[in-house]
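ESCALATION

Customer reports they have been waiting on this structure for their group meeting. Please prioritize. Original submission:
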Amino acid sequence: MEEGRRFTLTHNWRSVPQLLDAFNVLFSNVPDPFLFGEISYRSLVSGTPEREDRFVVQKDDGRVPLEFLVLDASMKENALFSVDEATGFASEAVAGEIFKLLRSARNGETLIGGRPLRADDIAVIVRSHRQAARVRDALTLFAIPSVVRSDRSVFASNEAREIAILLAALVDPSDEGKIRAALITDILGRSGNDIGAMMDDESLWVPQLHFFARLHSLWIERGS
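Update from on-call: job pushed to the front of the queue and completed.
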């Protein structure tokens, strides 16, 4: 790219100065930190070193701005972790750290902008929707509410897929296979054992067929 068309951001307006210093030490002490010699690292400077909404930890608990968590090989007999296992451990570790921060905030020890840190002040950046779901599930175990934000279409969500299965059964209630598929969605909440019991007892299964037939009729009569 021509020199006149190159633009470099030298000031970071989001991160605290201590984190930027850590990045500068990490990337400035090795040649070609991004593998390609054409891509150089320029030291960053905080655009707002004394920002009013800065993150403050009142109690010195030994935390540093940049930390790396490493999986302990002794946790696995052959010291080899699958991607799924590693993702699970990483998600649990992140959720645990967030729980500690929020607990510290409740004690008035962790502040942002002069007030206690809240869950909605924290963002977890991941590479995939699957990783986001794992972090969300790990946070749920700590009773920490979270929202997954992405540019993925709502039609690609699990909820949309289940609604499509349910609608397929409503469109064609004569197809018992579609009805069984609809019943075991999270929307209707039946289990495989429930379906098995219905298949063995017509007094349980026939009402389900009538139910979907009735919904189909209502859709035809009143739907638009």
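Sent to customer with the following note: The mean pLDDT is 86.
Escalation resolved.
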